Amino acid sequence: MIRKIKLLFPHEQEIIKDATRLLGGLQNPSRRLFGTRALTLGGLSMLSGCSLSDSESVETMLKTMSRFNDGVQGWLFDPTRLAPTYDDSMITRPFPFNAFYAESEVPDIEDDYTLALSGMVADKKAWTLEALYALPQTAQITRHICVEGWSAIGKWGGVPFRDFLKRVGADTTAKYVGFKCADDYFTSIDMATALHPQTLLTFTYDGQRLPAKYGYPMKLRMPTKLGYKNPKHITEIFVTNTYPGGYWEDQGYNWFGGS
Question: Which end of the chain is more exposed for a tag (fewer CB within 10 A), N or C?
Answer without folding.
Answer: N
